[in-house]
Amino acid sequence: MLEFNANNLEELEIEARERAYEVSAYVVAGVIKALENGVDKVIVGILKNVDLDLSVDKSKYLEVLETNLFRLEEAEEYELCKEAIIWIKKLRKNPKQT
Question: Which end of the chain is more exposed for a tag (fewer CB within 10 A), N or C?
Answer without folding.
Answer: N
